[in-house]
Design a protein that fits this description.
Elements lengths: L1 E6 L4 E8 L3 E9 L1 H4 L7 H23 L8 E7 L3 H17 L3 E6 H7 L11 E6 L4 E8 L2 E7 L5 H11 L7 H8 L23 H16 L6 H27 L3 E5 L6 H11 L6 E3 L3 H4 L3 H14 L1
Parallel strand pairs: 1-4, 4-5, 6-9, 9-10
Antiparallel strand pairs: 1-2, 2-3, 6-7, 7-8
Length: 317
């Protein structure tokens, strides 16, 4: 089955063609990062306009790179939530029109399901598995007992981990997108600043990062008032240590409780080097538990992951 995927939930315009949920024939991604840098974050109206300008071109490039024609496509899958409303509507309207014009089957996909299934592109799933979803807008632990059977064990009660990285980085004076810069600086520093480890409930799987964000801001504001220098690398290392410690400890706890065979890490923060290193070390201590991270190109928003999720959504509905 050949699936055409469409992703426009935020500031990437992407169209991909994937065969049988595995073989990526094309995955075209147009990013708007440079246009949003001057604002320090994504501006919804600006994002929507760029999607409108690029969606047709990206469709054409994806089909050309895949070397197929519309009549060879079996299914169209598109992100329909969560995301920026204006951006989502551009993708939904384009995908729906394409499917209608060529008499193709059509499914609407949850963006988070797409991030989870990005892992399937390069690794089979072994159930039951646990997905740690860490992105700009979401932080969740999700149990899967089979394809497209999702049980949310816990999620963030306030800020998502990726959002927290970007906000903390911005307060430190780092250019948008700041998350990756915080990660890189953390590897150069030492966790010398005292920051809280927020567990909410040690026996549960909810997350909270707003208090940690406030603690970092307080350190910076206090230093500024006292005209003291901040070691940015050390502060980044301290912040990242607090984030990663809680993420990994809650994940390991859930792995043991639910006796899963595999842990997949999904979302943009799956590219975080600190998280990858700590998770590999801790999962490595467990017997017969597989650990899967997507390739860097599949961590951020892309249509290949939507095509895979759409493929399994269609087969299991």
């Amino acid at each position: 089955m050949i699936v055409l995927g469409v992703e426009t939930s935020c500031d990437e315009t992407s169209v991909a063609v994937v065969r049988d949920g595995k073989e990526v024939l094309s995955n075209v991604v147009y990013t708007q990062i440079d246009f949003h840098k001057i604002y320090g974050g994504v501006v919804p109206e600006v994002a929507s306009r760029h999607h409108v300008q690029k969606i047709t071109v990206v469709f054409e490039q994806a089909l050309e790179q895949a070397g197929i024609t519309p009549d060879q496509i079996d299914l169209v899958a598109v992100t329909h939530h969560p995301g920026l409303i204006g951006s989502l509507l551009v993708g939904i309207n384009a995908a729906g029109a394409f499917a209608l014009a060529h008499n193709l089957k059509y499914v609407e996909v949850d963006h988070i399901h797409g991030h989870i299934y990005a892992n399937y592109l390069e690794s089979d799933f072994h159930f039951p598995l646990l997905a740690l979803v860490v992105s700009g807008g979401h932080t969740q632990l999700v149990l899967m007992k089979d394809h497209f059977r999702f049980e949310i064990l816990g999620e963030t009660l306030d800020d998502a981990v990726g959002e927290t990285y970007d906000k903390v980085g911005r307060v430190m004076g780092l250019e948008y997108p700041a998350g990756i810069k915080v990660d890189n600086l953390a590897l150069q520093g030492k966790p010398t600043y005292k920051l809280p480890l927020v567990y909410v409930d040690r026996s549960g799987y909810e997350f909270s990062f707003s208090g940690l964000k406030s603690a970092v801001i307080n350190i910076i504001n206090t230093a500024n008032m006292k005209k003291q220098a901040i070691n940015v690398a050390d502060l980044c290392a301290s912040f990242q240590n607090s984030v990663v410690t809680v993420l990994v400890e809650k994940t390991i706890s859930a792995i043991k409780k639910y006796q899963v065979k595999q842990i997949v890490v999904a979302g943009g923060v799956a590219a975080n080097k600190g998280l990858r290193t700590r998770m590999k070390a801790e999962v490595g201590k467990l017997d017969q538990v597989r650990l899967t991270f997507p390739s860097m190109k599949y961590c951020t928003d892309n249509a290949a992951m939507i095509a895979v999720a759409g493929y399994f959504q269609y087969l299991t509905r």
